Amino acid sequence: MKWIDYARTCSVQEAVDLLKEGNARPLAGGTDILVNLRVRRFDIDTLVDVKDIPELNEITCDPSEGLTLGAAVPCYSIYTNEAVCAAYPGLIDSASLIGGTQIQGRASIGGNLCNAAPSADAVPALIALGAVANVAGPGGTRQVAVEDFCTAPGQTVLEEGELLVSLHMPPPAKGSGAQYMRFIPRNEMDIAVAGAGVSVEIDNGTFKSARIALASVAPTPLFVREAGDSLVGQPVNEESVRAASAIARDAAKPITDMRGTKEYRMHLCEVLTRRGLNIAIERAKENK
Amino acid sequence: MAIKNYEPNMVLATTEYEVVGTRPVRHDGTDKVTGRAQYGADFTSTGLIFGAVLRSPHAHARIRSIDVSKAEAQPGVLAAVTAKDFPRSDASPDEYVQLGELNTRLGYLRDNILASDKTLYKGQPVAAVAAANAHVAHEALALIEVDYEVLPSVLTAPDGMKDDAPILHDHLKTEELGELTDRVSNVAQHFQHVLGNLEEGLAEADVVIEREFDTATVHQGYIEPHNATAFWNKDGKVTIWCSTQGPFEVRDASAASLNLDIADIKLVPMEIGGGFGGKFEPYGAPVAAMLSKKTGHTVKIIMSRAEDLQGTGPTPGSNLRIKMGATRDGKITAAQAHLAFEAGAFPGSPVGAAAMTVFAAYDVPNVVIDGYDVVVNKPKSGAYRAPGATQAAFGVETVIDEIAEKLGHDPIELRLMNAAKEGTRRADGPINPKIGCVEVLEAMRDHPHYNAPLEGPNRGRGVAVGFWINGAGASACTIMVNPDGSLTLSEGSADIGGTRTSVAMQAAEVLGIPVEKINPQVVDTDSVGYTSGTGGSSVTFKAGWTAYEAANDIKRQMIDRASKIWEVEPDTLDLQAGEITSKVDSELRMSFAELAGQLNDTGGPVVGSCSLTPPAIGGAYAGSIVDVEVDPETGKVTVLRFTCVQDAGKAIHPSYVEGQMQGGSVQGIGWGLNEEYFMNEAGGMMNSSLLDYRMPVSLDVPMIDTVIVEVPSATHPYGARGVGEVNIVTPPAAIANGIYRAVNIRMEKLPMNPGAVVEAVWKNGG
User: Fold this and answer.
1) Prediction ipTM score
2) What are the mean pLDDT values of chain A's consecutive 10-residue runs (288 residues total)?
3) Do B700 and A189 count as a contact with CB atoms less than 8 A apart?
4) Going by C-beta distance under 8 Å and a sequence separation of 6 or more, which residues neighbour residue B630?
C-alpha cells in the first residue's frame, strides 16, 4: 500500500523547504488534489498542507491598491466579502459557480489556478481582471501574469519548491465592468463545455480597454488578447461586440470530446463572449 | 371524477376504503431518516475482509492467460480467483436462469460474473482478490497479469447486424421468426408481430409519416452501488448479504454459478438504495463467496461508481424506424415498427417488451412489428423501469405528434380518437382487459396545465402517452397474530418504494385495524416462501394480494377461534373494524386484541399465510405534459413545467404512487436531455462518473405535478395496478414534441443534449 506523508506548515518558508525536497504537492482545499490522488492521476510522497500559512489566507480589498487574495482562501470567503463583491463582480461570478455549495467551502481560487485544468472557471475571470500571481520559491519571490501561468493541462510555470502565495488584481477603474459566464448542460455540478471571462473599460461610449479569455477550448485557459484589443477605440454597440466575439470564437482551439464537438464549442465561445460583454458593459455603466 | 381546479397532486378516486387510499407514515421511515437503516455497504462482521475485481480494459478480447501469482504473493492479500476456480456445473451452459425481468443462460451468467475465454465489454470482471483491507485489495489488482488478444469491437445494433461485423459469440445462431437457423451472427433473435394487412392500411392513409430514431445507452443511476458480502461456512453453507431487487433470483443464480443446492444458500436482503431494474444480476455475490471459500473469511465487495457504470446492466441503446399512416379525419390505419436493440455482451435486450408496448396506446387495425436482439461490446443490458418502452415511445409519440400537426388536430384529441380500449387487440396477441388509456388522456386534456397559456419566445408544450405491461410473479407472505393484537408480517419482496407499508395496508384493510398495528418485515430467503423480485411494478400488486389473502386466512381463523370460545357457529360471527361480533347476539362481542390474548390457551397461536402467483396482471398507461424553453444559441432545454398523469388502478398509498410518478418523470427527463454512455471508438465509456454521466440535479427539474387516475384493474382485490414504471415512458417523447413546438425542429436522437439541439437548429437552417 502506498503511504503519503502529510505535513502541516505555518510559514511560506516552511512550505517551500518541504516542497523543494521533491515529489510533493501543496494541499489547500483539497477538492482537486485528493480526487486526483485517489484516481492515481499522479504519484507523490508528501502532501504539504498550506491552509495555516497567514499569507495564503490574506484577503485585502483596497480601493487604491486593489485586491490581494491568498492562494488558500476558499470561494465562500470571497463571495461573502462585501468589499470584494462590490468591486469584483466578475470574480464573484466564478467563485460562486465552482463545484457546489459544500465544495465552495473548501475550494480556493489559487487551487483552481494551480490545478491548471483547461476548464478552470476562475482562470478566465482572473485573466480578464489582469490578475498577477505572487509566487515564492527557494530563489525568492516572483510575479507571473495569470495568462502565462498554465502551460499545459495540469501543468504550470511553478518550478520545484515554488508555491503560489497569492493573487493580485488591480483596483477596478471607473467605467469598468467584468463578467464570467460558462456553459454547462445542467444547472450546477458540471464542467464547462466552454467559458468566457471578459472585462471592459468604457469612457464616453467608447471602449478604452478590454480583455477576453476562454475556458475549455484549448489545452490551457486561453487569453485572446486580439479580441479585447479589437474593441479599443470602438463605440460600444452590437456591431463591435459581435466582431470581438467572432475573434474569440476563431481563436478557440477546442477538441471534440464527451462535452461537445469542436464546432459546437467554437460556436459557444462566440455566444458566451457576446453575452458576457453585454453584461460587463451594463456593469461598467453602473460603475461610475 | 373530473378535474375542476388546479392542485399540484390530484387523486381521481373511484372507490374509497378505510385504510387503502390513505397516507400513513412508512414503517421503515425512522430508520431511513435517522441513518440507522443498514444498506449493503453497512454490513460488517468479525474477520471481515475485502474483495476487489479486476476488469477488462478492452471491449473485445480473447484471454490467452491470467497469472494471479504476484497478486497472491503480495503481503495482505489472502486469495485470488478467476473463472477457473469456479466449480464445473452439473447443468448445461444453455440452461436458463431466472433473473427477474431479464433471464439468461447459465453460460452467459457465469461469463458475466468472471470472464472465461473472452471479454466482451470494457469493465467485464476477469479476476478478483481478497485482502485484509480494501486498499490492499485494489492495489493488488495491478499485479495480476492478463494476456489479451485484442479483437475489433462493435457498439451499436445497426453496426452489429452488418454482415462484416466482428462476431461476439462463435456459437450464437440467429433465431429467425421462432426457428433456430444455422447462421452465426450477432443477431440473437429476430421476431415479428403482424396484425391485419399493413399495405392495405397504408393505402387507406392520407398522410404517412416515417422517421428513424436512435437512443443512447443509459444507466439506472441508483444512488447505492452494487455490493455483496458472503461467508462460506466449513459445512458448505453459504450466506450472502446484499441489497438486491431479487433476493431469490440472486440466491438461485448464485447456486447455479457455484454449483450448490439452493438450500445451501441463504440470502439476507439488506436495505436497498434504489434499483430501477438494475439490481437483479448477482455480479459480486458469487465472487465474494468463492473468495470466502478460499480464505475462510467473510468477504465484502463494493463497486465504485465507475465500476457500477461500466460493469453492471444499463438499459440499451436502440435504433427504431417507425412508420404510421392516418386518414384525413384522424383515424390511424397502419403502423410499422423496426426495433433493433443492443443486448450488450449477451443476448436478452428488452426488445420484446418494446414490441409489446410500442403501439399499445392505440387501436390500429394493421400493424407489423419487427424486433431484433443484437449483441454488441457493451455491458449486458439490464432492466430499467419499463424496459424497452421508453425507447419505443420516443419514436411512436414523435410520429403521432407529427401526424396530429399535419392533419391539424389537437395532439391529445388525435390520441383520444385512436386510443386503445377494453377489447382492443395488441399486435403481439393480447386483447386488452379493462384499461385506463382513455381516462389518462381525458385527464391530460382537462388538466389546467394543458389549458394554460404558454407565452414567450422559444417555448413549447409537448405531450405523450405510453403503456407498460407490468409484471407479477410468485409471492409468499406470513402474518403472525401477537398476544396483544398486533401483527407481524413477513414478506420476501425487497422494499424499494414504500412497499412494506402498501402491502401491510392491504392486510389492515381486511382486518379493519390501523396499519400501524402491523409490523411488516422483509425477511431472508430461509424465512419466507419463494417471492419473485421487486420488478415489473409488481410488489404492491402481488405481495399486496398475497397479504390480502393471508389476512383473510387470519380472519377465518380468528372467527373460528371465537366460535369455539363462545360455542357458536362460525358463520354467525363477523370480524369488522377490529372487532369480532355476532350477527345474531348483540351481547357477543370481543375486540381483536382481546381474542389475540386468548389464542395460546384456546388452541394455539394464529398464523395466516398465503403463497400465490396472480393469474393476471394489470397493464397501465401514463402521460406527460411538459413546457420547455429552448435557447437556440446554446441548445439548452429548460423544463419549465411538468405534469404526470397515470392510471394507478387504485392508489393503495397515494403519496408513494406520487413519489413513483415524480421519480420516473425525473429519470425520463434525464434520459431525454443529457444521459448517455459516451463511448470512444475502442468501446470505452468516457464518462464513467456522475460528474460526466449527467443525471438531472435538483436545479434541472421543476416540481412535478401529478394526477392519479383510478380505473381499477379487473383482477386485484382492490383494483391496484403496478405504478413504478410507466411514468418513465413518455418524458423524452413529450420533451421532443415540446422542443418542436418551441423551435420547429424534430429531434430524432436521444439524448437531446445542447450540442444535439444546436446541430438540429443548424440543419434546419437556423
Assistant:
1) 0.95
2) 89 97 95 90 93 97 96 98 96 94 96 97 98 97 98 97 98 96 94 98 97 98 98 98 98 96 98 98 92
3) no
4) B458, B459, B460, B636, B637, B638, B739, B742, B743, B757
